[in-house]
Amino acid sequence: MDIETDGSTLVLAGDFDVRSTMEVRHALYELLALHDGDVVVDLSGVDSIDLTALKVLGVATRQAARDGHHLTLRGCRPAVRRLLHMTRMIRVLEVERAATPA
């Protein structure tokens, strides 16, 4: 899992699963502590995601809201969107709409 920070955006690439949740959780909470307001998690480079990773995002979203922040997911690929719908986490996590081509 590659984790980069670009301003208030956490950019992830690779497999976001149980093996990488601790380092993603740490990076995400660090970013939330540094920025007031909106934080984005860019998943456009994530090849696969599992339920443990979705739980990390769900708990971070809840904690961010308690602290007055707003967490949004960007660049969700179809496999990620399917898992969000299957687990009903789509109700908890805010997913940025993909821009429709002109």
Task: Note down, in words, how this protein is organized.
With 102 residues, the chain is of the alpha/beta class. It has a single domain (2-95), classed as STAS domain (Transcription Regulator spoIIAA, 2-Layer Sandwich), CATH 3.30.750. Helices cover 38% and strands 31% of the residues. Helix 1 links the parallel strand 2 (9-16) and strand 3 (38-49). Helix 1 packs parallel to helix 2 (51-66). The longest helix is centred in the middle third of the chain and has 16 residues, at 51-66. Pfam families: STAS_2 (PF13466). It comes from Nocardioides lianchengensis.
Categorize the overall geometry.
globular
What is the radius of gyration computed over CA atoms, rounded to a whole number of angstroms?
Answer: 13 Å
State mean pLDDT (0 to 100 scale): 92
Number of domains: 1
Specify the structural class.
alpha/beta
Residues in helices, as a percent range: 25-40%
**Which class in CATH terms?**
Alpha Beta
What strand line-up does the widest sheet have?
1-2-3-4-5
With helices defined by DSSP (H or I, 4 residues minimum), what is the helix count? 3
The proportion of residues in beta strands is 25-35%
CATH topology: Transcription Regulator spoIIAA
CATH architecture verdict: 2-Layer Sandwich
Q: Which superfamily, in CATH terms, is the homologous superfamily? A: STAS domain
Distance between the termini: 33 Å
How many β-strands, per DSSP?
Answer: 5
Biggest beta sheet summary: 5 strands, mixed
Order of helices and strands: EEHEHEHE
